[in-house]
Amino acid sequence: MAKSTGLAITTLSVDDSGGTARDIRNDITNWELSTPREEQDVTGIDKSAKERLLLLADFSIGLNGVFNPAATTSSHAVFRTVPSTSVARTVTLVVAAQTLPNEVLFTDYQLTRAENGALTWQAPGVLADGTVPTWA
């Protein structure tokens, strides 16, 4: 069985507000994603354990990184329009040759200046287009 680490992610790109995919891996320090499903309890009174049906699928992602305003390809250039636009962005993640593309609405672009002087950002995103998240 092949096992992988999270080291040297080959792709993590996010569209900028103009729709151009930007590779922002160098600015990202960590990320998390979730692909939950809603569920419906359909347990009848004849059962002694739960019965459930899976319902709608969802996707969310949280990107965290180091502030970089240097160029048009930086994370700041990608996320700086989040507060003023409601444009869905294509997020493409490739881990160990497994690809997960999704249309995402980023709901915030948070900057944090820590006590030690570090300037970091967080960008949470949610599924935008009703397409079931699918690894390929």
Helix and strand topology:
Elements lengths: L10 E5 L5 E3 L4 E7 L2 E5 L10 E6 L2 E7 L8 H5 L9 E7 L2 E9 L3 E4 L5 E9 L9
**What's the overall average pLDDT, rounded?**
93
Unreliable stretches covering 5 or more consecutive residues: none
- What is the distance, rounded to the nearest whole angstrom, between the alpha carbons of the first and last residues? 18 Å
What is the molecular shape?
A: elongated
Number of helices, where a helix is a run of at least 4 consecutive DSSP H or I residues: 1
Radius of gyration, whole Å: 18 Å
Number of discrete domains: 1
Could you spell the SSE succession in H and E letters?
A: EEEEEEHEEEE
Beta content comes to: over 45%
Can you describe what's shown?
By secondary structure, the chain is mainly β. It has one domain (11-40, 52-127). The chain contains one helix and ten strands; from the N terminus they run ββββββαββββ. The chain has one helix at residues 75-79; strands spanning 11-15, 21-23, 28-34, 37-41, 52-57, 60-66, 89-95, 98-106, 110-113, 119-127.
Give me some keywords for this one:
eight-stranded antiparallel beta sheet; 4% helix; 136 residues; 10 strands; mainly beta
